[in-house]
Amino acid sequence: MEFCEKCGALMRPKRVDGKIVLVCSSCGFVKEPSNSTMKITEKRERDVKSEIAVVDSEVAAKTMPKVKAVCPRCGNNEAYWWMVQTRRGDEAPTRFYRCTKCNYTWREYE
Prior knowledge:
Layout: E1 11-16, E2 19-24, E3 30-31, H1 57-63, E4 66-68, E5 78-84, E6 94-99, E7 105-108
Antiparallel strand pairs: 1-2, 2-3, 4-5, 5-6, 6-7
């Protein structure tokens, strides 16, 4: 690990014209590395909290809120609903419905 002689920031390796040089990430100062061998590694810890949990759809449906909505397939008057931001952040989210009787899923755009 080497630091910039001008500003003291960390120097990062970069390939320029086929050879590796050290470049300052702050001021752009370029320096050739010393003759010592340089090995760059990155270790990532596995974050269990950020993993997506897969849940059985029947179990998940029991925790979803219900609303009165007519199913286009069977005509049932009750459905589970949830919202997902499927488009850009400045546009309205898409509301999804799932029939409590036949499990047909449809969407509503606002």
